[in-house]
Write a structure and sequence with these properties.
Elements: H1 2-16, E1 21-26, E2 29-34, H2 46-53, E3 58-59, E4 72-77, E5 80-85, E6 88-94, E7 117-119
Antiparallel strand pairs: 1-2, 1-7, 3-4, 4-5, 5-6
């Protein structure tokens, strides 16, 4: 139920404006605020992202690659993560300030304070990909 509300909220935000917004989950309550984090644009290449933002803190191994599962790669930066399909950006996610990009407390649980943040860069009218796994510390975006 909560993930459906969150997904609907994210879709509504992308329809209203192409500006990035953070969806904050605090103690099971969803809040939205405008994001001040500069993120790579959807469709940018890996080379363009690295040129603009520098080398990522962490490069996760590519997953997928089968005919019906395109290769998906995630790069973590301080404060956000970028998800690529092949070599193009399909999503950028602002990670909670409570946990650094890619960091997860012991046991894989969300941060102890219950906070997580996501930010979609999908153009207006487009939903974020359901098969893209959110980075550690990010709230779920699909149901």
């Amino acid at each position: 139920m909560q993930t459906r509300i969150l997904a609907a909220l994210l879709c509504g935000c992308t329809l209203v404006s192409a500006a990035a917004a953070e969806t904050i989950v605090v103690n099971d309550q969803v809040q939205v605020r405008e994001s001040q984090v500069q993120l790579p644009k959807r469709g940018s290449t890996m080379g363009e992202v690295e040129k603009q933002f520098g080398a990522p803190v962490t490069r996760h191994p590519t997953v997928g690659g089968a005919p019906h599962q395109p290769p998906i790669t995630r790069w973590d930066y301080n404060g956000f993560s970028v998800v690529f399909e092949r070599d193009r950006v399909i999503d950028s996610v602002v990670v909670s300030s409570a946990a650094p990009a890619g960091a997860m407390p012991e046991g894989g649980a969300p941060p102890a304070d219950g906070t997580a943040a996501t930010s979609g860069t999908a153009p207006a009218g487009e939903a974020m990909p359901a098969d893209a796994a959110p980075p550690a510390g990010a709230a779920p975006t699909g149901g």
